[in-house]
Amino acid sequence: MLVLTRKSNERVLIGDDIVITVLEVRGDSSVRLGIEAPRDRRIQREEIVVGVSDANREAAVVGAGAESELLKLLGR
Length: 76
Description:
It comes from Agromyces soli. Helix content is 29%, strand content 24%. With 76 residues, it is an alpha+beta fold.
């Protein structure tokens, strides 16, 4: 992991096509970042990706009796 110290309005370049700009450093230890990248690059917050992945995993679990409940709904 590369660790950098940046101030407001300073930038970090990733390759030739991604620019991260520090927009604001707040006193409560948070930082606002601006990210410029090609539209075909997905930029996502990790906690959202993890949350969706966890929810998908939970939804995929088949509980006991699920088959019989499905057959009831289908009228069989």
